[in-house]
Batch of 3 targets.
Target 1
Amino acid sequence: MNAEAPQARTHTTVSDVMYPLGEVVTAAPEDPVLDLLPRLEESSMHRALVLDHGRLVGILAVADITRALAWPTPAAHPRHDGPRRHRPAA
């Protein structure tokens, strides 16, 4: 957004700055993290949308993976509260 003149920013829409879906890395919840890492590293976003049968269930960044792999076991991670499950929308 810095490349635009300040007065033009008020007219900037989401579609003007978003990544097209075809350029976004996607993964399924059951995909191995080590298979996803090379695709994330090649992406300028360094993030992936996590889709379960076409439904968005999460967003994963390289930093999330790095942080999770730094702990010896998932149970040792201070934020671990068991497997994360998405909840259907009400």
Note: The first helix runs from residue 6 to 9.
Target 2
Amino acid sequence: MTRTGRHLPINSSPLENDIMIRSRTSWNVDLAKGLASATLLLALASPAFAVSVINKDTKEHTVTVDLGSTETNKKVAAGDTLQIECPERCGLRVVGSGYGRQPGPDGKLLIDKGGMLRFTDETGAPKAQ
């Protein structure tokens, strides 16, 4: 006996058939809810992108972290490295330099001797250590 494309035992009653179909449907819905919940938890638990700003200048600088709806200023001493937790799309700029950068794929930016924010692999930029 075939009902709605599913193979059911020949000797089962219509009531048993309905119970079997409902239990499978209910299990599928529960599985879908569980997978959706797990996906959401993984997305929320994913760590932020860690960015390093290396100050190669001889003086302290203030770095503005632009998160879209909020901005914060963080100081980085001469020769020091600032670690910043950055979501997928954050912007960074050195106060007074006039332009900003988004982190590169290596997650490292540096402040050069002139106080300008650069990618570590940018031409003319000293290599980060």
Note: Residues 14-45 form the longest helix (32 residues).
Target 3
Amino acid sequence: MSDSLGSGPAPAPPAPPPQTTLRRRLAELRGPAVAPHPLDARALAALAANPGCRRRALLDGAGVDKAALASALGSPAPFGQSQFAFMRGNAFEAKVKADGGTELMRLLSERLGGQSPPPAPGEVLVPDLSAAGPEGRTARTALALREATEARAWALLDHPLLALEVAGSPAYLEPDAVVVRPDGRWTVVEIKSFPMIDGAADAAKVGAAARQAAVYVLALERVALHTAGAEVADRVLLVCPKDFSNLPAASVVDVRKQLSVTRRQLARLTRIEDIAAGLPEGTTFDLDHCSGEELTAAVESVSAAYAPECLSACELAFHCRHRAREEGAVEALGRGVRGELGGLTTVGAVLAAAHGGAGDPADPTVLALRRAAALRAEALAAAGTSPEAPAAGGEGEAAEPADEPADEPVDESAAGPAAGPVAGSAGEAVTCR
């Protein structure tokens, strides 16, 4: 339609809101044309387990695809699930939530409902949570939670979207389900495809699911602060296939310990803008426009805190392990070993101290190393073996751990109390698949 006489030109459309300095900087780091890789609860739990790793904090905050970055660096990690596992998990979740969540509500009432009967079919509200963009979905989820709490009714939120600030950057999290009870309590529901045999599931996988659920509880607490009468339960409902069938079974998992540890660890994370401010000018992780050498230099410009536990939780673990071995860093042997060695930070320094070539004789660590070396020499002499023979591969490689697949459990039992993951148990170092 043409402008009328004297009306002048049509007004220009409003300009989009300017990006904040942090968002612009993070976009430059991952590449201006690259969409941010989402940070899920599993990655967030792994990040909380190693809060001293500035490298992971920056890459996750910037939304860099660490799996693609690891492949570009020449150290790919075999993470992920097979297509069959995805299909089986999705089919089981659909079965649990079918008919308006009737079976899920029965399991919830059976495990957490006490003497009250489960809601009848049709009594459960299932609000529509669709909206444009993550901000819109987060706002729609918060509104649905408030409406259900004010209505004092049962409600099932299927894949709500929650927001949680991590190191100064927002992370969007999507639990399997959240149930709102008439008394105002909100319960997180985790649906997993690993079996529950004779009423018990694999302890490592349950621990990983508990750490993941604790992140969801933290995000829900932010919403509950602005909702009158709301209370977030610190016990979550874990739903798994029963025995070797596809029938659902449920168990209650207390996440108070994981919740307190995760809250404390996330508070320790260095803010992302502080890490980005210390990078050299022009640093970027743009996979489309950087060579392998440039990406390696960019990654090495951010300090890492490698430990063998990273092999089951981070896509860059093989690259960091290779660098740690090249430098002879004792971190490659585990957090417990690193803590016991005190100021001895390299394998070469440890061997020199053990053989009397360096180190303070008054240092208890040096004394223990020399005593261990003397005992080893006595044992080898009694066996008729020369004590000068290297154990395997020469200095810096004698004590290296064997290669471990990234998708298998990492035994932390030998690492001591300093090596505990977020959940505080040695058997919980495995990311739930």
Note: The chain has 15 helices and eight strands.
